[in-house]
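Entry 14. Ran structure prediction on the chain below.
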Amino acid sequence: MNDIKILAIESSCDETAAAVVVNGREALSNVISSQIDIHTLYGGVVPEIASRKHTERINRVVDKALKDAGVTLDEVDAVAVTYGPGLVGALLVGVSFAKGLAFAAGKPLIGVHHIEGHICANFLQFKELVPPFPCLIVSGGHTTLTRVKDYGEYEILGRSCDDSAGEAFDKVARAIGLGYPGGPKIDALSNEGDAEAIAFPRAKVDGSEFDFSFSGLKSAVLNYLNSCALKKEEVNTADVAASFQKAVVDVLVEHSMLALEKGGEKRFAIAGGVAANRHLRAAFEKACSERGVEFYCPPPVLCTDNAAMIGSAAYFEYIKGVRHGLDLNAMPALRLGERI
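Output, structure tokens:
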């Protein structure tokens, strides 16, 4: 079989990205134009600004991805694009551009689920990894524990009932004055704090052993900060960050290891932006090692939003014959396992 080259586009939030991926396993290029510096000024992602910046940058990013890969548009086999979930305006920029590009070049169009892309980032890093295996996706908008049954086939084991882990990181970071983006800043500050200093709660969801809940933990942090303010007690923000982060990590690891043990698997993967967190990676590596389980986690550049992961997911759709028409639309609330 000839090599299949996919030109992939990602614009679901605040990164404008494009990549060329071969056979779902090798990224010939992976170009990312981040807007973090812009949105930091506002304490979080401003959807209207994100959409405008995508519009300004997408053409240059796609051109660079083709150039870096050393291929022309004529030489790619398909154009892939994230169509959900994400910010609707941001998604529409990528979807509209990809549709125009595919139509003009006479190439097949493949819409890709953003969360499936995060899972597939592992296939780019670990050529030997094949389904089935359980995977925890932890990102700004999603915390989902799933069993990857096959390429593009998933069994949802558990998900967050309220805030995702990433949302909790951002909200707590804002509360202790760290600003945006919260996850990396809490991760860094935690190195200076005592993770056992404050006993924050670890929530469990009644009747659903694999589901997550982080809103109570977030509220506990806010209550602690308010209590200190009322008592005029000094707050050690490093201790707050470290104790909060350990509470999140403990729950993620505990639920995941329980799912592993019940399923009897010997391989486990994590994915998503929060998977770049050093403390989280270390905790999973330790837990898996103690159980004789192979642990897989992409490097940070493939954990955060990027187009190479979209190209990987698109390849497995392509070889199954999946194609989308020019009526492809953005679906901001798409859940893992849902398809158009």
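The CA atoms of residues 115 and 336 lie 6 Å apart. Will compare against last week's run tomorrow.
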